[in-house]
Amino acid sequence: MRQIFPKAEEEESSIDLTPMLDVVFIMLIFFIVTATFVKESGIEVNRPEASTATKQERANILVAIDRNGEIWINRRRVEVDALRPNIERLHAENPQGTVVIQADQEAQTKQLVAVMDAAREAGVYEISIAAESQ
User: Would you say the pTM of this structure is higher than 0.85?
Assistant: First the structure.
């Protein structure tokens, strides 16, 4: 006798992971694009205290002066002569940004004034000095 119905083959059931991988990939891109990156000057300084200190929101050029008078930008030691080109380059990347000088409380005023002059020569007139709030 001939069989009318073919023999039932077992089908393997599997879940297609492609849509889930697409969603994970899109979420990864979203988090990378929206992440804020913390900029650091490169060294830790003991900032002086000030009762009127306020937080700067748009600071993107951080310049640190340590107690020995060394100047640091983006974890690199910078000579006074190279300050202006470095600040100009960073300011070109973000024209709305400001310069924040993180001077150690033991640093000399001479270095602080040199950094401020270099920033102004580079075309940045919004300059702040970092301090600890009380």
Answer: no
CATH number reported for the structural domain that contains residue 125 in this entry: 3.30.420.270
Residue 29 lies in a domain: no
- Count the domains in the chain: 1
Contact 52, 132 (CB under 8 A): no
Does 67 reside within a domain? Answer: yes
Q: Residue 14 corresponds to which tokens in the numbers above?
A: 């599997």
Give the Cβ contact number of residue 85 at 10 Å: 12
Q: What is the largest CA-CA distance in the chain?
A: 107
Q: What residues form DSSP beta bridges with 64?
A: 72, 102
pLDDT in tens, 44-70: 666 666 666 666 666 678 889 988 889
In a domain, 63, yes or no: yes
The residue segments making up the domain with residue 63 are 49-133
The secondary structure of the chain in percent helix, strand, coil, rounded to multiples of 5, reads 35, 20, 50
By C-alpha distance, which of 126, 128, 101, 104 is closest to 115?
Answer: 101
Closest CA to 100 of 67, 36, 53: 53
